[in-house]
């Protein structure tokens, strides 16, 4: 896999010893946090009744004990809306105050349109731009960077950033699909970002001012077939959008080369953390809270060990929720805020790797 990546360096306030902004940058900080998971809990024992697996096999290989499953009456946008409502309440604003919606999902309600417009409509928000991003498991990191970039355009005060996925309906709960079916759950998380165009001081690694600091994003399409859902789609050589043969061949469920994904995820997630730290003259030990994507507990433990971080600095909720794809990072934030690890002034880094291959990391002061 190549080492090409894109970086969004957002700079520091004038007088800093490291970066000076080369373009105007407003302050963009988190003012609201919300999350939502369906009520139904599916345990490893429940899955063992459907396929040849058991609790010990799942826990030792993934770290997952249970996951949530949406009710048949719920759609992905429904999950997203519940998380968004909580984020709005947390920020002390209403839907009418939203100036932009940026959402990550790979399981939209419809093939088109995306769920951003559905979230806008269900919240009764103004007719603002509602943007869907297909960054897979790295999607929420891409959303934060995208929102940060749009904030520079001016005219915005509150940006809603959402990650939501409903994976359980596309999984194969049989022996043939057990390697992926045991991994995923449903959920959503949301942030409200407050934009201050006239901020006197920006967030940096040298102060405790709240705000987004920097992002590093990238992709490598040569790894796309290591984790993908083949159909439906506009594949070359296919006359129809979807056929019964596709269903018979299980082309609509996720297919994964677990070893390849594991190897690339551990390498890239570690390198992302080190790269952002190096750019800002800090070490991984200076990070107060590391929030990694929740694909596999063993991946996160390997990354933690390579970075030399203590357990309490790394947030993991995969045991409770499984891999919720776009929602993993905000779900981690919600749990870390609840247990007291995520408080104002903490230096936080998110890091994620997913299908595509795609990856991203965000550095922020909470």
Could you please describe the fold and organization of this structure?
The protein is α+β, with helices and mostly antiparallel strands. It is 29% helix and 22% strand. The strands form four sheets. Strands 1-9-14-13-12 form a five-stranded mixed beta sheet, with helices on both faces. The radius of gyration is 20 Å and the shape is globular. The two termini are 33 Å apart. Mean pLDDT is 92; it is low at 1-22.
Task: Please supply descriptive tags for the structure shown above.
single chain, alpha+beta, five-stranded mixed β-sheet, 29% helix, disordered N terminus, 366 residues
Largest sheet: 5 strands, mixed
> What is the beta-strand fraction?
15-25%
For the secondary structure, the number of strands is: 14
Helix content: 25-40%
State the end-to-end distance.
33 Å
Number of helical regions: 11
Give the low-pLDDT segments: 1-22
Q: Structural class, judged by helices and strands?
A: alpha+beta
